[in-house]
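Re: zinc ion structure - here you go.
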Amino acid sequence: MTAWSTFSGDEVAALTRGESFFAAPGERDCPACGRRRLRAYVTAPENARRPTLVSYVWCSGCDRFVGTRARHPEGLIFSDPLAALPTSERRELERSLSGFLAHLDALWDAGALPQTFTA
Ligand SMILES: [Zn+2]
């Protein structure tokens, strides 16, 4: 299984520059390896106390990732290919971060990701 490592602080800062992922959800250049293999997935956990957006950003070229939580922008609606999964299956999937990232990467390769966003 892939050994994922985290982006450095400078790389994470670079991720926040440029066009919003919601406006341009396709692959973009990775701040670590420079390849156009940077991918992302966002989800809105149902059990959050206030509207929350959890983002996973990873590079399928150099196997780096970062996960962040932020406020869910008001009115932002998006598709979620994992929404159809039964809760137990989804929990099982999220139990292992490396397994979860590998699953997301496979969904991207299969064309189920990126998501579509409507603001
Ligand atoms: Zn990379």
